[in-house]
Write a structure and sequence with these properties.
Layout (H helix, E strand, L loop, with lengths): L4 E10 L3 H12 L5 E4 L6 H9 L5 E6 L2 E6 L2 E7 L6 H19 L6 E3 L9 H12 L10 E4 L18 H9 L4 E7 L13 H10 L2 H10 L2 E3 L1 H9 L1
Parallel strand pairs: 1-2, 1-8, 1-9, 2-3, 3-6, 7-8
Antiparallel strand pairs: 4-5
Helix pairs in contact: 1-6, 5-7
């Protein structure tokens, strides 16, 4: 009998704005989103955490936020920077502060760790978050042996060029059909982007539409893919 295929659909940027919160909640209640990653520094974070607290099956991770960059005129330009990511001491202090804020807002530890614009793939953020993930005994995106990460459901290229075909229902169904055995985290960014200053705005509403598309649900059923959250990853370690 083949090993089961289990899909975590995780929405990044939860708590950044009210519009993003609305999109994530819609994609959870009417679509296939099962999990989210919380940005604790933003005014809408308290509302996002309150929503998750009332839904124990909805896993909530920490989306470490050290800055955001956009590609303009052939180079990356900072929209904002929280700390210099090459300053190990300042980065470690900020990550600890954000973890404390998460615990205060959510009332518990995060079920998983990741970072805004994947800054933890580089040092020193990488080793800081790997150590933290080990201490918390939770998966860190890109570095968790038990959870494969798929970032292909994204409506832009690496330099911000539009890729609308990448977030259509047909493409998401293809990704579902190609899932390997075991746990896969599918990253997504649903929301109403009208209230966020970001290089990824108009695409968010398109993601909501696709994540709520009935054909996507039918594809999951036809492929025998189980939707789950990071809670099931933790439970599988204990069994």
């Amino acid at each position: 009998m083949p090993a089961p295929r289990r899909l975590i659909v995780n929405a990044d940027d939860f708590g950044q704005t009210a519009g993003i919160n609305r999109g994530i909640i819609e994609a959870h209640e009417h679509g296939i989103v099962t999990s989210a990653s919380l940005m604790v520094r933003w005014p809408a974070a308290a509302a996002a955490a309150a929503y998750a607290r009332g839904r124990p099956g909805f896993s909530l991770g920490l989306h470490v936020d050290l800055g955001e960059w956009t590609y303009r005129a052939g180079k990356w330009v900072a929209l904002y920077e929280v700390v210099a990511c090459d300053d190990r001491a300042a980065t470690a202090t900020e990550i600890a502060r954000q973890l404390a804020a998460f615990r205060r807002l959510a009332g518990r530890d995060p079920t998983h760790l990741d970072s805004h614009q994947h800054v933890h793939r580089e040092e020193p953020v990488c080793s800081i978050l790997q150590e933290l993930a080990g201490n918390l005994r939770v998966p860190l995106r890109h570095f968790a042996a038990r959870v494969r990460y798929c970032g292909d459901f994204y409506g832009q290229s690496g330099k911000g060029e539009p890729l609308p075909e990448a977030i259509r229902a047909e493409r998401l169904i293809e990704l579902i059909q190609q899932l390997p055995a075991g746990f896969t985290e599918l990253g997504c960014h649903p929301g109403d982007g009208s209230d966020v200053d970001s290089m990824y705005r108009s695409e968010r509403a398109g993601e909501v539409k696709t994540l709520c598309d009935s054909h996507v649900r039918k594809a999951l059923a036809a492929e025998g893919v189980d939707r789950c959250s990071f809670h099931e990853v933790a439970a599988s370690v204990l069994t």
